[in-house]
Amino acid sequence: MAxxxxxxxxxxxxxxxxxxxxxxxxxxLETQEVEGTAGGGMIKARMNGKKKLLSIKIDPKIIDPExxxxxxxxxxxxxxxxxxxxxKLSGDEMSKIVPKLxxxxxxxxx
Length: 110
What we know:
Layout: H1 2-31, E1 33-38, E2 43-48, E3 53-58, H2 68-97
Antiparallel strand pairs: 1-2, 2-3
């Protein structure tokens, strides 16, 4: 029984450390920035690692009053690319924290 308590204590310490690491990781994701571009860099969308859109920059040369749909599509493409980059950043950060699990096992929410 004493051995079991040691194992449980060790597991609790590991879980507490993982929780602390996750909190630090979440704070880091708030400050990390990623960028998505479209239209050869004429549209730029920046967001943080938690997928909060920070800014959109549009080069005035790409604005065509006769083609607002084209501009809208480019903005969506840039934002979606930034979102994918934020997902990669978040996934990379979580892989540092979450222990390697056997294939087929997933932790909900990751």
